[in-house]
Queue: 4 jobs
Job 1
Amino acid sequence: MKRHHVLVAMPVFAEVLAQLGEHFEVDAPCGIRDTVEWTPETLTARLQGCAGMLVAGTPRVDAALLAACPDLRAVCSMAVGYNNIDLAACTARGVLVSNAPDVLTETTADFGFALMMAAARRITESERFLRAGRWTHWSYDLFAGADVHGATLGVLGMGRIGSAIARRGALGFGMPVIYHNRSRLSSEAEQQLGARWVDKDELLRCSDHLVIVVPYSAASHHLVGAAELALMKPGATLTNIARGGVVDDAALAVALREHRLFAAGLDVFEGEPALNPDLLDLPNVVLTPHIASASLPTRRAMADLAASNLIAALGRGPAAGKPPTALNPQVLSGA
Ligand code: 8YV
């Protein structure tokens, strides 16, 4: 029987490629160290004749790409955020889309907490000082930072990852937790997490450490901009592990420079991998290259889940037709 062709549009584990090879003719032009971002034209050319594609947080999959790639039937992402994929356009064309929730929740929450702590306790700033050979004296206020334990943790976006961060704060660090989310958790869930819902302004005003975990969409673009930053305490920190664009990076850089905010931790940026150059000059911001989910076991679980979705969407095995984390399963059921 003729095998489907699939494109793996990112570097991925050799074991995952081997597994896909058992089911498909695999085009995997990205070497394990190849970080080249394709243009839409290159991606379109690569996708000709392909029924499926494995992606991560890039590239952009939109109506124009789908129209130019009529054989495409499944787009399976190893990321949980899928703002790079136009889900409505895929559904309209009968293209199955899947993401990778759950498998990265705890790893990403660990990182969010680490980034928040690094910003609060000035870890990277003080390390740069030490490495530069400038540690010649002791002073009571040498790199004095903001306490984390007992401080108020604010979570903007209380989904799986937000909840995992809230748990860490409440149980591990004795932090009162407040959160804002469009939909409120049940009172049992709030009790379990020790978290209290507040409106967005109160969240901004009362958080000592604000962690942002909302998905990116047109509605969340610059959800935290100059006006929102102006509400925050001057001694507070802001951590963004959501998506570039949720925070107005230019406004954030100004607030940090003027010490209207104590510090920030950023793993995601507007226009990444490029970033606002103003951020690079600031001592009070910790910058990391979108690695919140990057532990090898978790990245492997994310890739395995994406591959399982692709195999179930296009393959003929026992799970055929039932991709485990499909976002639009109706396209397969014909509903
Ligand atoms: C990915 C992420 O590593 O899952 C997500 O939504 O942001 C990360 O875990 C990233 O999308 C890869 O591009």
Job 2
Amino acid sequence: MNVLVPRAAVESNGQIASKTLVQAGITGLGHRVPDRILTNAELETLVETSDEWIRDRTGIEERRIVAPGENLASLCEAAARSALENAGLSALDLDLIIVATCTPENLFPSTAAQVQNALGARCGAFDLEAACSGFVYALICASQFIATGTMKNILVIGGEVMSRYVDWTDRNTCILFGDGAGAAVVSAVEDGFGIIGFDLGADGSGGELLHCAVRPTETNNAQIFQNGREVYKFAVEQMGATAVRALESCGLSGEDVDLLVPHQANIRIIKSAAKRLKMPMEKVFVNLQKYGNTSAATIPIALSEARQSNRIQSGDTVVLVGFGAGLTWASAVLKWS
Ligand code: UT7
């Protein structure tokens, strides 16, 4: 059972611990996307494609791409500053920083350590890699430290610079991806609110379907490969299924959901997930037409925009659903406080 409810903690070294679990929730949100817009029309000049094909098959109209001087850490830092301001906290209030990314500038040091330094935070920092499911994985990871009372405020960032790893001669993939970062502050919230259910999963047997190999002996080697049709089938099946499992873990169903915030990969995949959950599209947040697929960043950017546009009210049940390379999937159910 994946439900996080306050209750007497189970044993520790054979004894019943006196602590109770604390509810963890999102208390601040922010995002940053590069200013540079790459339109479908511009892509027509790079590969044999058309604006009509891209819109029909994906729903994407444009995406953002980093300009010289911008990088993953700078996008993450800007998103983080905005989330901290929204939460009313300073960097010194942070106990941990987790950056979910699959497009780091370096294998090491971590992007999280770069963000820690840029913010002037004094806390631990690490990266987490679960591709497009990464933000939800990181959110659930952070919530465990809050639940046990060992930490008070954790910054969870989903950030990607997909444009660095895209093969700009491959029309199957280059039309899909974009750059950006979204951040959430995770802290204790009132009982009954915050993260009330989740589902995490992986099936590494599908790893070859969507991958980006690093071969240190070659130059310009790391490029995204995707078997679009197979990933599409996996996504249609798993996106609804993981959301249902997360909802069932806290005794809810699709009819109880006020807002679905799905991974923004393809409008057709999102529509099929909404159908499986018996949810009208009015209850689904979609912004992929503006940003394309920013991998681990899609969900926190969408959440941040949903908050800014008052699509989320106190007491709402919000479901986050991600899926992607690994293959991985991840869902979280939140009662907004
Ligand atoms: O976050 C990561 C998770 N990834 C995903 O969620 C992606 C899942 N997959 C998809 O979203 C879709 O499979 C794509 C959008 C990638 C492709 O759409 P599709 O409807 O599955 O197209 P397809 O791969 O079946 O290709 C149909 C045709 C092919 O031509 P033929 O073989 O029928 O002659 C492709 O070569 O469309 C062609 N095609 C294109 N045509 C114009 C593929 N890419 C393009 C393009 N422009 N960019």
Job 3
Amino acid sequence: MSKKPKHVAIIMDGNGRWAKKQGKKRYAGHNRGAKTVSKIVEQAAKEKIKYLTLFAFSTENWNRPKDEVNILMKLLVSSLKKEFVKLTENDIRLSSIGNIDSLPKLVKEELSYVKNKTKNNSGMVLTLALNYGGKEEIIDAVKSISDKVKNNIISPEKVDESTIIDHLYTRNLPPVDLLIRTSGEERISNFLLWHIAYAELYFTKTLWPDFTKEDLNEAFRNYYKRERRFGKTSEQLN
Ligand code: IPE
Ligand code: IPE
Ligand code: MG
């Protein structure tokens, strides 16, 4: 049986389809999805998960209609305002990954406010992936490593796994143990490429607004049944 996952990452997909199924506009699904975030974050903290990383907005999501992007950014600000008391109550520290500099000013301000207010919380680390792309993360790491090589700070032959990790947005996060994606899509969509190298993948057809605490626990139960071999044989593990 696997141990408790230390780092759980979630691709919270299916909000638009949830709304469509109800004959509502897509944003109704995103609003409902924000409520799910609140419940799942609390549940993960109760389950003593150390790191929870949520995919909230990808670098590719800028290609959506302008109205939808605007609504998503507003929802982010209002959710941060609403949730931040709950984060402290549950001893959760807020963090983020992605290209935060290019987000709207209001999002940046609210994000840095909540990060600052929760910085001394020592329970779960909640990381929001915002304007995040796994390829961009690797490109940025390669750029900063190349720069250090050019300036003789790093010698090329010394570049190893830890050099790469130290230059990723996710440098302070352990590898992902369990990656959950809701909505029935079975793809990674440019999320956490490096850190999911050995993650266990869990796909569920449930749309994110319908995802419950019980569904999260079901994902954990499924994970516990898996044998994580990391290249070894089953006999070596037992
Ligand atoms: C995921 O839900 C949330 C974001 C990308 C912001 P979607 O908006 O992709 O919902 P579907 O996949 O269209 O149903
Ligand atoms: C991934 O969902 C991004 C987030 C959940 C924020 P998408 O809905 O954007 O992914 P694709 O385009 O279906 O792969
Ligand atoms: Mg989607």
Job 4
Amino acid sequence: MRIDRIALSGFRNYDEETAEFSPGVNILRGENAQGKTNLLEAVYLLTGAHSFRTRFDRELIGFGCDWASILADVDSDGREQTIRLLFRRGQRRTVTVNGAKKTSAELSGVLRAVLFSPDDLYLIKEGAAARRRLMDAAIPQLRSRYAQLLTDYNRLYENKTRILKDWREKPRLLDTLDEFSDGLARCSASILRYRASFVDRLGELAAPIHRDFSGGSERLSLAYRTVSTVTDPHAPAEEIYYQICEHQERHRQAELDAGQCLTGIHKDDIDILINGVPARTFASQGQTRTAALSLKLAEREIFKNETGEYPVLLLDDVLSELDAGRQEFVLNRIGGGQTFISCCEDGTIRRRTGGRVFAVRAGSIRREE
Ligand code: ATP
Ligand code: MG
């Protein structure tokens, strides 16, 4: 899994720019606000996902431009493929693979990437949304149906939320409430089974990494937490569906009173324990960083185990946030796949990785010899 070439037009601060990447380590070096993260964002968008910075495609289009495009040659499962994304103001994005039109969901899996940014270092201490983001960024790249389920879930959730908010002024809205609740229960049942398996695998792979990282002294474990009536998240979807309906029934009046959707997988979380106690509450700063790094490195291993290939790894400014020991640990574990590292300096990282260096400056990408 790698990206060989990219061409950007009207994308963020890039007018027209191209670059050819190394199959190993690529270092994007440059001052602040030059376009390093923009380039990583372009690579990430090729996975079919939404940007890790914005929900709005219009923000990707360069100031003063009507459209933006990202064209890339990638090697995926041993096949050369050309992906093109086109973003036009006021229109849906267009995706083509080898000239054939695809949906964003169909693009998932053509190029797979794992992003690692300084925000991820707070994965453990932050609210549940950060841990849901981890699941929702990874799973669609491995299970294309998941992307569609999430889209459907979000649409149903918005509709239900609107009904719960406005039903007092427009009581007729209540006629369709049950229909939306039912749709949400069905989507939730499928989504949570995917999430439960992912968290199991993540836990299995993160535990040995964290053990190594902590010199053998710490035991990291994960548990998926979802709607409380669900007794076994691996049970058949039909069984889970009935358990979610039961939860909805119990909370029906509370939802009407609160004017909000109180039940569903949008509240899911991952419990993260170190030596049996919740890391979010008890772990030190250093321990939570180490655990976060272990989770991100484990995420990369899941992709490798599932697909036989390492995903493209995007390290956005993360190394400068780490002490020497943790930097070394990460750099020692990123072999075997293509990696992009953005940073403000190149000296030590270049020496330690032997990577290809690109100077990124005011929307230009220049390879350094
Ligand atoms: P840092 O080291 O501070 O993280 P960076 O090199 O990663 O910097 P980027 O986040 O890539 O910087 O942003 C580079 C510039 O792109 C910023 O100055 C930003 O204002 C500009 N920019 C963002 N969106 C657009 C857009 N849609 N059109 C034009 N320029 C944009
Ligand atoms: Mg940046």
